[in-house]
């Protein structure tokens, strides 16, 4: 698989919660963190998603928000990976932010240049990568 | 809270419609406009979302579309904030568009440079910011 | 309608699968391909979505992933349009990729510059445009 998404995490399905149209899929990462994905029930069936299945959790960088100081807020977004800013690339409109996780993995976020400036992001500062469950694509080996 | 999302609206929960896996949350803004968010039922429970609760509606600029002339179309996207283009920043690939709302708030959209050119956007022209309910993150004070 | 989204496909509703809060809408394109959209039940009612209805499927370029070699993977994303890379514009942070479909339509994706480099994208190579059902906005004539 060669896919444009910068975030591809190997994990294992922990649980699948079926709804009427959509399902919620919990994916455990080796580092102990969890990713929650919302996919259609059709996808659950076609991909054979069930507890124990090895999967990839795929997230576009543009779906990821950066939270620099979140002690005072609780967010509805199901996914929050805490780490340290390890790289920032500024463009005229967009900025690319890399957050290194304790597990050794990295998360990539594309945010607005203005957002980057407003946050005062600097390499070495703590930050969290935030993304919603519907932003996660689940992949399995064909 | 310091978050990269350019759009953070203070509002009050109007209603919560529970589904099997996801819920629809109506958020009333002080200016009389409404934002609809789709979040998981787990988030509704953890954040204590119920009518009257003060919340923040958070939307990434990249989740926002700009509609320049929408008299002839109805869209499935639940969120449509009408205003006036107040700023445009063009990059080689992306453009940042700011839409000033009658309430005094602004909405920020990151769109493609080609989209911006095709729309003929200019400061002072009317435009609507369009975003889907699953693009909205709900935040509450911790 | 003048909308910033680069991807606007004319199609016909094939089926609507109602859930508790959200519905899945299948849209048939003239070229024989299918697009799946997840919208709220309120939208289904307001837009009068039912089999046979002429609609537009609208997808922001930033919601589209590019898959360059997908023989070994199955993805939960419901939408996969196969074609050939016809244009690439590189920016410092983002890249714009155009994929020409056999039907004559094109799909536009905004991906990270790093993603573009990692994929080794070149004009003329086969590629698929991937996007999730919740990324699709459905439009009808007012």
From TrEMBL, chains A, B, C:
Annotated ranges, domain Mop: 2-68, 74-140
Family matches, as InterPro entries: Mo/tungstate-bd_C_term_dom, Molybdate_resp_trans_reg, Mop_domain, Transp-assoc_OB_typ1
Record bears the keyword Ion transport: no
Keywords carried by this UniProt record: Molybdenum
The protein's name: Mop domain-containing protein
């Amino acid at each position: 698989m060669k896919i444009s998404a910068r975030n591809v995490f190997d994990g294992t399905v922990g649980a699948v919660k079926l709804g009427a149209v959509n399902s919620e899929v919990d994916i455990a990462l080796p580092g102990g963190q969890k990713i929650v994905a919302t996919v259609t029930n059709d996808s659950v069936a076609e991909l054979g998603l069930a507890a124990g299945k090895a999967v990839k959790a795929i997230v576009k960088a543009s779906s990821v928000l950066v939270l620099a100081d979140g002690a005072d807020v609780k967010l509805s977004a199901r996914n929050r990976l805490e780490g340290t800013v390890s790289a920032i690339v500024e463009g005229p409109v967009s900025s690319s932010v890399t957050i290194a996780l304790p597990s050794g993995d990295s998360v990539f976020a594309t945010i607005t240049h203005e957002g980057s400036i407003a946050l005062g992001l600097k390499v070495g500062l703590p930050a969290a990568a935030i993304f919603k469950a519907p932003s996660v694509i689940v992949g399995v080996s064909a």
